[in-house]
Amino acid sequence: MVGVLTGFAIIGAIILIGYIVGRSGVLGEHGRFVIGRIAFYVLAPALLFTVLADADVHVLFSSLLPVSLIAAAAVGIAFALVARLVWKRPVSESVVGSLASGYVNANNIGIPVAVYVLGDPAYSAPVILLQLLVFAPVALTILDIQDRGRVSLRRILAQPFTNPIIIASFVGVLFAVFGVHLPAPVMEPFRLIGAAMVPVVLISFGMSLHGQRPLAPGSSRRDVLLASALKLVAMPLTAWSVGHFLFGLSGKPLFVVTVLAALPAAQNVFNYAQRYERGEILARDVVLITTVLSLPVLLVIAALLA
Fold this sequence. Notes:
Layout: H1 2-24, H2 31-53, H3 57-60, H4 64-86, H5 91-102, H6 110-118, H7 125-148, H8 153-162, H9 164-178, H10 184-195, H11 197-208, H12 221-246, H13 251-261, H14 267-276, H15 280-305
Helix pairs in contact: 1-6, 1-11, 2-9, 2-10, 2-11, 4-5, 4-12, 4-13, 5-7, 5-12, 5-14, 5-15, 7-8, 12-13, 12-15, 13-15, 14-15
């Protein structure tokens, strides 16, 4: 338990530094944008490639995948049912809310948590692949249909092949599956670059917290509160129940799937909402609220299961 608390303390300290940097404005108005681009296009691919290339194949294709799939699908469907049948929300807003309820930040927050709390960054990789290869294409298909009246299959199918994180992860998985081992001098540059990923993204996240005001007047407060509750409470409970009773998990494997399910909503949800100009405030507020409140939720999970 002390190790888990130490991990959270390290994450919190770096996020606080990022908040101070953002508040001071020392990096200028485009600082967070530049840091985010470097993390997405350079640091994260390097880290995921090296982590997956060295990973145990049994971890990558364990029960973590179906448990994560079931938990995310359950809360996403729950939000969609309430939004559509009870509140009569449009389809696009319902899709954004469903994503906010179950699409976790397995990259920017998930990797640091996997490193400092779970002890292995490879734990977050299957969730990243699941979301980018399954959930994102399904959601984008629906949003495309609502936006254009038709679906752009070419763009949706091409998305995985233009995402550097997916490409690097796929190559790393191939290396792990086929037992490919590159010489140390070849791998070391990737390891050094990837090592910068965790602190950089935590600083970027801390910067993003400055100046945010969730649940402002005129926003869809009911939708935000429902999606946040599903994300922070219902999803980890579902993951624990499915993992324990359906897949017979216990000990660390059960702790891992529950922690990953309790991660906050991903920034990608806001990016999708912004792209289609649907549910932007909903996505923004859920991402912010779940990110702030996920730490105490994760601490409770650690106290009960670690």
